[in-house]
Amino acid sequence: MVANARWRNVRSQRSPTTLYDPSAPPPSPEPVYALNFYSPIVAEQLRSGRKTATIRLGDKSGKYKKGMIVQVLCGSRYSRRERVFDAVIDKVDVKRLGELSPNEVEHDNPELRSTDDMAEFLAQLYNRDVTVDDTVTLIRFSEIRS
């Protein structure tokens, strides 16, 4: 059997690090990003597709970018968390809380419609006063199904 030229070219272009070398350092893993939610109620909203966004206090545009793949998790800080699904970030918008539309608020919390209600909700979540003048980041995401 004669090897074809294409096979030879592929083999000759392969770098030695693609072969197993026990003395070579392990490849660095890709960073894994997460969107974490604390309430188990939210996990059910996520699974059912009723929650397709999160509104975070402050400018998070440096951390989350459109097209980024994240793990959507549910659980308390410093405790075991449940992986709900992987998602792709569709949109990251930074704006004043008062500039959010009722539709954007509903994508975060299906029980809320107004920015005043969202301000109260965020105040409880972040344990501080929140007004419609505060900066928030709206992160829209879509579940990745295999």
What are the main properties of this structure?
146 residues, alpha+beta, 5-stranded mixed sheet, 4 helices, 25% helix
Describe the structure concisely.
The protein is of the alpha+beta class. 25% of the residues lie in helices and 27% in strands.
User: What is the succession of H and E elements?
Assistant: HEHEEEHHE
Strand content: 25-35%
Largest sheet strand order? 1-3-4-5-2
Low-confidence stretches: 6-14
Largest sheet composition: 5 strands, mixed
Shape: elongated
The overall average pLDDT, rounded, is: 87
Number of helical segments with 4 or more residues: 4
Amino-to-carboxy terminus distance:
40 Å
Descriptive report:
The chain is of the alpha+beta class and 146 residues long. Helix content is 25%, strand content 27%. The chain contains four helices and five strands. Strands 1-3-4-5-2 form a five-stranded mixed sheet. Strand 3 and strand 4 (82-96) form a beta hairpin. The longest helix has 12 residues, at 115-126. The protein starts with a helix and ends with a strand.
